[in-house]
Design a protein that fits this description.
The complex is a heterotrimer of chains A (367), B (249) and C (372). With 367 residues, chain A is an alpha/beta fold. Chain A contains 14 helices and 5 strands. Chain A has a 4-stranded mixed beta sheet, with helices on both faces. Chain B is α/β, with parallel strands linked by helices. Chain B has one domain: P-loop containing nucleotide triphosphate hydrolases (Rossmann fold), CATH 3.40.50.300. Chain B has a 6-stranded mixed beta sheet, sandwiched between helices. In chain B, helix 5 runs parallel beside helix 6. The longest helix of chain B has 17 residues. Classes of the chains: A alpha/beta (367), B alpha/beta (249), C alpha/beta (372).
Chain lengths: 367, 249, 372
């Protein structure tokens, strides 16, 4: 036991001494959360739009002023012709152009109808859609005022946004970041570090030492497990303090499940390390086989329901998918263990399988 | 024996932060001799050799290699030296032939010249069947011999060998020294570091380093008589004791 | 010049002998385009919604069929009372529950405002807001048809309305894949240039061969040119391969000129390879290089506007983007491929990339030392 604790201390020192890597490991989750929280927003703000006004009357100018005043838009240019507007699109000056037909105010008075055309840069389709609907809202509001109906919209909706009233994107990316970081630190780091010991030949020195293989494995993996737990807590705290992501359910359950996922990721890392000879191979296998699926097929950023069926099936073997379902349920919906028992059991099963497999592989290599 | 100095070092100091790796070294190496740098790991041998090769800047002191100043004329020095590092530094994923062609090409040797010299080398070392093998498939002893051949392929004036024999068996070490003698006969000066004390006997002159300083310098016979010892092992032990005594004062 | 060729020959030999490189060069473009394009989709399609129809009128049935007809929704469950809404949303059986109130048809006919309650699972805020927008669009169509129809409204009190026609340029079908593909090509090219360059150089450091090179009289520019040219060539090849896959598999339109695209790509690769070199100057192990790149890459790619509009980002982020090469290249690829922009259209982006490339490369080359 004393021998083992000595070895453990050495492993900790080894990791702590590489300051740069340590720094990056702690900065990645923090930066990622801040970037997701502040930068990656799917909303329209200050979108640059242009105007083609063939009429130039008080109505078109009033509408233009209203578009400019809205937080969503900034009217940056008036174009004389369609060709000019198109050049504007190509140079990325504008995202949309609102075209008012000539005799606009006249038509409105005479025929109660006037023609507006909205040209949109649909190379970003979602943004084009949002801009389109926001411009329509402003136009409708204007016509409602002219009609003095106050509420021209006879049928309206009353949306109730469950679990996330303000549609804050943090609710998606805080749990997602947890899954990603746990994979990164535990699986990627541990597989690379074991591969490095193999590459440099120090693994053999360890193996001939009186330490038992299981102690070597534990000694290698424990520091990463500790690091991951620190990271989980720091992500949750930042998520909560900075972005107000709640933990409605039980903290104990949340941490226990996170620990289960850490175990799973560690055994994945161990398995990868038994399969490879060099650090580079370990890196590429971990990135392609573990990181990318965790980012893409877990429902972290992209909803799984929208993917082709093949990818949906593939997502069933991505452990992060189950982890995300569980922690979102606990944190955001406040559900208890009984609601997520299936997912927990799946994670548990995968973990046991992986541990058995990698211990077996490790032993085979020894003989 | 030609007494012209090919390396001159005066008051060489190299510091890494607070740590002094080379403390006021003074020595010279004569043309066509085998000059040995002896000392335990961490004595500062590798640092000194890297400064001489132009891989590290000295902190202070005067260093001349092949008549050129290491501060200003490193590129002229580089044309005149060969270097073999502890790790042998061959590309494992290239064949023996490709490695040699690559390094020789970098030194600007003509293609025909490379071919003649390579054919000579193959027949000399008897590596007809090894020449198209990947370096990763060679045994350590062969890697070492080939690394040495690469280091002197462009016929430098001086070749620097940093612990060339660490990790190889005594017979291979003996064979390796034969190659070194051959190089010296063709006029190359050899600067070698080692921590095998028996190898010191093969050198014309040796320099014993400890803790960044030079403790003794001279031919093996001179040192043995000076310290009244049977062999270099004893010399080394006596010098080491002396240093400790000095430190304890 | 001959020295550069010697380095080049050695690099290509090593690259093609490396068992990892062949899959990276030839298979990664396929994996990235095929998997990423399909997986990285933020468009709604056939989202399952539940409609609770308390009215059970012609109008309500008509509205439900409109939901079903839309490409965005699939009404997977219809109910006639309020049961289990909470449970269904909690268990994620449905994304959204829309409640059509009692007297829906009657109220509309009598011009009494009607309110539809919409429950949306909003953990994914982005999908939630899209769902809300699409539901409202469908409702607006429905209202236009029913209410503004002359039979419902008495003549004379005809309200003012705008005849709005929207034209979605450059991507009429709002194909999200066409939006993502150029973005994925940016990731691909960046990974090739930054990761491979840095790892390649750090590997030579780790193995000690870098030291062996440094004692030779080779000039810095000769060595670095020989080191970096292969990745330039591979980068261009990857772009061509990725584009071909996009055009053949996803009907990606290619509006611009190939020459323009490759001129831009060369400038960008120059900057990217410079970044790789710069990182290798500071890293001593591959692991370090890897994590450093991973850290910066993640930030730069998210900020580049790959998923979301750059204009919606806070001002400081837009300022940071002024020195983010990925941001410029993202704009360039999308504009050239989808909109047919020329170098003249993108002159600012072009100059920015040139300046950044030259700066990064100069610093990196200056930091590369044969003697430490």
């Amino acid at each position: 036991m004393k021998r083992f604790s000595g070895f453990l201390v050495k492993e900790f020192l080894h990791i702590l001494r590489d300051r740069r890597t340590m720094l990056i490991l702690f900065l990645i989750p923090i930066f990622q959360i801040l970037i997701f929280g502040y930068v990656v927003k799917n909303e329209v703000k200050d979108a640059k739009i242009g105007i083609i006004d063939l009429s130039h009357d008080n109505v078109t100018e009033e509408i233009t002023a209203r578009l400019d005043a809205a937080v969503d838009f900034r009217v940056v240019r008036e174009y004389q012709t369609y060709e000019e507007a198109e050049a504007g699109f190509r140079a990325n000056e504008i995202k949309a152009v609102v075209v008012f037909a000539d005799n606009f105010a006249n038509d409105m008075g005479k025929y109660r109808k006037a023609d507006v055309q909205i040209l949109l840069d649909a190379s970003d389709p979602n943004l084009a859609n949002l801009i389109n609907s926001y411009i329509s809202v402003i136009l409708n509001k204007y016509s409602a005022e002219v009609n003095k109906t106050g509420n021209s919209v006879i049928v309206s909706t009353e949306p109730r946004m469950w679990f996330n009233e303000n549609l804050h994107s943090a609710y998606m990316f805080v749990p997602g970041t947890m899954a990603l970081i746990l994979m990164l630190i535990t699986a990627l780091m541990s597989s690379i570090s074991i591969a490095r010991e193999k590459e440099t030949g120090t693994m053999e020195i360890l193996l001939v030492s009186p330490l038992r293989p299981i102690q070597i494995i534990l000694g290698k993996l424990t520091p990463y497990a500790v690091l991951s737990i620190v990271n989980v807590v720091s992500i949750l705290v930042i998520g909560n303090v900075v972005f107000g992501v709640p933990v409605h359910g039980s903290w104990v359950l949340l941490l226990l499940v996170s620990f289960l996922f850490i175990l799973l990721a560690l055994s994945l890392g161990l398995l990868v390390s038994t399969l490879v000879k060099t650090q580079q191979t370990a890196m590429f296998i971990s990135i392609l086989g573990l990181m990318l699926p965790t980012m893409l097929l877990s429902g972290f950023i992209f909803p799984i329901e929208n993917m082709p069926v093949i990818l949906q099936y593939l997502s069933y073997i991505v452990p992060a998918k189950y982890f995300l379902i569980i922690i979102k349920s606990i944190m955001l919906k406040g559900l208890g263990l009984s609601y997520v028992i299936n997912e927990v059991l799946i994670l548990f099963g995968i973990t046991l399988g992986l541990i058995a497999l990698s211990v077996y592989k490790f032993k085979v290599r020894l003989e | 024996m030609n007494n012209e100095n090919i390396i001159e070092v005066e008051n060489l100091v190299k510091k890494f932060g607070d740590f002094t790796a080379n403390d006021n070294l003074c020595f010279e190496v004569r043309k066509s001799e085998i000059f040995g740098f002896l000392g335990a790991n961490g004595a500062g041998k590798t640092t000194a050799i890297k400064i001489l090769c132009g891989l590290l800047f000295p902190t202070s002191g005067k260093v001349m290699v092949a008549g050129y100043d290491v501060y200003k004329e490193r590129n002229k020095i580089r044309k005149n030296i060969g270097y073999m590092s502890q790790g042998f530094s061959l590309y494992e994923d290239l064949t023996v032939k490709e490695n040699i062609e690559f390094y020789a090409g970098i030194y600007g040797l003509k293609r025909t010249e490379i071919k003649t010299r390579f054919d000579d080398l193959v027949s000399k070392l008897g590596i007809e069947e090894l020449k198209d093998k990947f370096v990763s498939d060679l045994p350590l002893g062969w890697k070492q011999k080939i690394a040495f051949s690469v280091a002197i392929f462009h016929k430098p004036q001086i070749v620097f060998l940093d612990e060339p024999t660490s990790g190889v068996d005594p017979i291979t070490r003996r064979q390796f020294w034969d190659l070194i003698y051959e190089a010296v006969e063709s006029g190359i000066t050899v600067f070698v570091t080692t921590h095998y004390l028996d190898e010191a006997e093969y050198c014309d002159r040796v320099c014993i380093m400890a803790e960044g300083r030079i403790d003794a310098i001279g031919s093996p016979d001179e040192l043995k008589s000076k310290y009244k010892s049977e062999n270099m092992d004893e010399v080394f032990v006596k010098i080491a004791r002396g240093t400790n005594k000095m430190n304890n004062k | 010049m001959r020295t550069v060729l010697i380095i080049l020959r050695k690099e290509f030999r090593q690259i093609f002998r490396d068992r990892m490189m062949i899959p990276i060069i030839f298979i990664m473009p396929f994996v990235q385009t095929l998997v990423l394009v399909y997986a990285a989709t933020l468009e709604l399609k056939d989202t399952s919604i539940t409609v609770v129809d308390l009215d059970r009128s012609d109008y309500s049935r008509n509205l439900i069929s409109k939901f079903n007809a839309s490409p965005f929704f699939k009404v997977n469950f219809q109910d006639y009372n309020y049961s289990n809404i909470e449970d269904d949303i909690l268990k994620e059986n449905t994304k959204s529950v829309i409640i059509i109130p009692d007297n829906f048809e009657k109220d509309i006919r009598n011009s009494i405002p009607v309110n539809l309650q919409m429950n949306i699972n909003a953990i994914d805020g982005q999908s939630a807001s899209l769902i809300s927008i699409y539901v409202n669009q469908i409702l607006a169509g429905f209202v236009k048809e029913k209410i503004l129809h002359p039979t419902v409204l008495s003549q004379g009190q005809m309200p003012v309305s705008f005849n709005v026609k929207s034209r979605f340029l450059y991507n009429e079908e709002l194909n999200f894949k066409h939006f993502m593909l150029p973005g994925i090509l940016v990731i691909l090219i960046s990974m090739i240039s930054i990761f491979l360059t840095a790892l390649n150089l750090v590997k030579e450091k780790e193995k000690g061969t870098m030291e062996q090179i440094n004692v030779t009289p080779i000039q810095k520019w000769q060595f670095l040119t020989g080191k970096m040219l292969p990745f330039m060539i591979i980068g261009i090849f990857e772009l061509a391969l990725g584009l071909t896959i996009g055009i053949l598999m996803f009907d990606l339109p290619f509006e611009g000129s190939v020459l323009t695209l490759f001129v831009f790509a060369l400038v960008y690769l120059f900057a990217g390879i410079g970044m790789g070199l710069l990182i290798s100057d500071f890293a001593s192990t591959q692991q370090q290089a890897m994590f450093t790149i991973f850290f910066f890459f993640l930030i730069l790619i998210l900020m580049s506007g790959i998923f979301t509009s750059v204009e919606s980002m806070p001002d400081w982020a837009q300022t940071v983007n002024k020195i983010n090469p990925l941001y410029y290249f993202m704009r360039i690829l999308r504009s050239v491929i989808l909109k047919g922009s020329t170098i003249a259209d993108l002159i600012q982006e072009f100059l920015a990339l040139v300046i950044m490339g030259v700066t990064i490369m100069s610093v990196a080359v200056w930091r590369y030392r044969k003697t430490n």
